[in-house]
Amino acid sequence: MRSKAIELLAFRREIKDRLALTEDENAENTSLILAAHALKKTKTWILAHSDYELKHEEINTLQNYLTKYLQGVPLPYIIGSWAFFNRTFKVTPDVLIPRPETELLVERAIAFGQDKDPLTVVDAGTGSGIIAISLAASLNHASVYALDISSAALAVAKENASFHQQNRIKFVQSDLLSPFRSEFDLICANLPYIPSPKMEKLPVARWEPRLALDGGPTGLESIEKLLFQAKSKLASGACVLLEIESSLGKPALEIAHKIFPKAKQQLIQDLAGLDRVLQIMLP
Predict the structure, then answer these.
(1) Average pLDDT, rounded, for the chain
(2) For tag attachment on the chain, is the N or C end more exposed, with fewer CB atoms within 10 Å?
């Protein structure tokens, strides 16, 4: 326990020094994020008030955050939120942490849907709701369904939808498309796609929900199941966009061709040049 006042800049330096020992490449930004959240201020405010004297409870909060981070707890779970597609979303250990790669899927979905009216969209395995909410906000004419098998994940997604004032999204607890008989114009999904043998070797498996990560022995079990279900639930000219594990592009294409032999299949690469999204366009 500290007996004298300490300025914000000095404490941030202490945080960065401790993070540097762990070879954290983003120590500067991490210290900034933790300080901003602990003090309930913006990053700009933190940078502009380096001589601010921290209160006792603020020091305790920062130390608690730092301890968790050094234990390996992901930063979004510590602060309880993360940015995606120019919005901030609540995240808990019940949902995956939003990642920039998924923005590629959202961009493609918007490009497809913006000139198609009427438009019925489904986000299968919605998690925190980032895809459904981003699409609802960008496609005002769309009817959007957000599905997840996890009631805990749906609770987070509903909270995010309310926060972003996207209250027309219909949330359904379901095993993919099983409850539906209607046709969709656009199906989007970031389903579990990590092959089971890889799971234990990945740090994310320690903290993020296995239900949202483990794609079975091949990594494509949930994706193949969704595509089989979608076969009878897609309108003419519909589009399917699926995020995939970068090494699974070829087998994912083979599954898509088997189920939709008359459709046009395409792999879309992310900024790193890796296969990231499987796009299926129906005639």
Answers:
(1) 94
(2) N
- Domain spanning 81-281, CATH class: alpha beta
Q: Which of 94, 91, 43, 34 is nearest to 64 (CA)?
A: 34
DSSP string, 84-98: ETTEEEE--TTSPPP
> What residue ranges do the domains of the chain occupy?
8-71, 81-281
Q: What is the tens place of the pLDDT at every residue in 166-203?
A: 999 999 999 999 999 889 999 999 999 999 999 888 88
Four-point Cα dihedral 15, 21, 22, 26, nearest 10: 50
Environment class of residue 133 by beta-carbon count within 10 Å: exposed (0-12), middle (13-18) or buried (19+)? buried
Structure token digits, residue 75 = 């930063």
Tell the burial category of 128 from Cβ atoms under 10 Å away from its Cβ (0-12, 13-18, 19+).
Answer: buried
**What is the pTM assigned to this prediction?**
0.93
Mean pLDDT of the region 116-143: 97
What's the pLDDT band for 2 if we cut at 50, 70, 90? very low
Q: What angle do CA 125, 128, 130 make, to 5 degrees?
A: 90
Whether pLDDT at 40 is above 60 = yes
Residues 6+ away with beta carbon under 8 Å from 12: 31, 32, 35, 46, 50
